[in-house]
Amino acid sequence: MGRLYWTVYQNALVWTGELKSLLSLPNYQPKIDRAPMEDFLGLRYMIGDRSWFENVELLPAATVFTWDIPGKTLSRNRYWGWDELTPLTTPPPESEAVETLGHLFVDAVQSRVYPGERVGLTLSGGLDSRAILAAMPDHSHPVNTITHGRKDCEDYRIAAQVAAIAGDNSYFAEMNAENWLFSRVKTIWETDAYGSFIHFHFLSSLTQIKTQDLFNINLHGAWGDVTAMNIFDGLKFPDVVNKRLGLEKFALSLQHKNSVFERMNNYFKLCHSSPHIIWMDHRIRRFIFKDINVSLVQGIETRAPFIDCSLQDFLFTLSSTFSEDSNLYKPMLCQFFPKYYQTIPWQSTGEPISPPNFTRQVQKKLVQFQTKVTGKLNQFGLSFPQANSSKKRKPDKDYANYAEWMRQNPAYSLYQTILENPNALYPEYLSPEETKKIKQNWQRHLNGEDLGDSVSLALTLELWLQQVFNQKYRTGE
Questions:
Q1: Is the pLDDT of residue 362 over 90?
Q2: Rounded to two decimals, what is the model's pTM?
Q3: Beta strands 119-122 and 144-149: pairing type?
Q4: Left (φ > 0), alpha (ψ -120 to 50) or beta: where does 152 sit?
Q5: What is the pLDDT of residues 331-341, one digit of tens each?
Q6: Could you give the strand order of the β-sheet that contains 217-219, starting from the edge strand earlier in sequence?
Q7: Three-state SS annotation for 168-193
């Protein structure tokens, strides 16, 4: 699942797994391609197959290139496409779909685990990595699992419960204000700025995997969203781009927003206006797989069961008959792996996904009733009487607190030095309005707003520019 970049340089075909290696070509002078740079700042990843450098692209999905040496010409042939699959016109019975989904998923996991391999798992408090652990073949246990996050975070508490049920080993990589930062600086260089500085979460686990030699093959829960049919309604594509993908939040100017949206909309049409196709051929390749790119640099192989061909073929054929809120995934998990989901909560909700028992149903109704009554009383300046005003402290749900960590050293010094540097390179590629917006966002973040994601995109851009053109920050120093 590595990347392959290509370009035609001095009448020769050049291909490489690392964009930065082009800098070693004789007399090669890279030029930043403004359009994908805008995409990165507006969506957190690039649209289609373009790269940071002009005239350098990724090899398209399922495509073979042929270079004619005498003629110095390139031809391409896509050997497979989604149009080879026939979508269902009527949905199968839900029980049948759940059964098929479960068997395909188990096969997807077990076909990626072989006897004698040192396979491990990055385990969170979510549903997807837990499902992979539950589906692993008996011969693979006990395995080493690792979870990253803040001390006492919900992810580790839940992950430890899951690992205990499987009889596996549970390790924890603590993230805090002091240790999350500097390994990410050199990772920008190592991965060709494939993702935003703030999204290299996997690095915390990766460091411990390497130092403690926990495993050399990682099963990754990437793309469980598709299995949950959690894509989007194609008719709502503008809202998806602006809200869900964050363009409305990240855009630095109206022109920036409009140009990125136009490119994204055109690409959606190239994907036959199919949510499934654009999610698989685009978002998963350009955004979701950043962890895989990070791990490859460190020599850790990553396997992703959720993108198994048979599994995705099945989901694609279903996508035209089931709505975006279809509920096949959770029933499948409860049916195939009940001991992992009946009582252990999901980090996102704090509750198990199994059908609620009578007691939980009553408790939920009471909470809903109290909320409704409290709202009515508040309109008249009254409050709902509390039997016990002291509330039990809940552990921190989020595994990281980037917003606060960015306001503290050492992160504060790095962001401040990079973004406010009078010799910074990023203003050369942006309008004065956009440059001003970046600096305003940084100050607003320091004043309490959470603009960490947006500010980190600008930081990533500047680090990459300095690494490419000034040979700085390549080692994290």
A1: no
A2: 0.90
A3: parallel
A4: left
A5: 999 999 999 99
A6: 169-174, 144-149, 119-122, 217-219, 301-303
A7: CEEEEEECCCCCCCCHHHHHHHHCCC
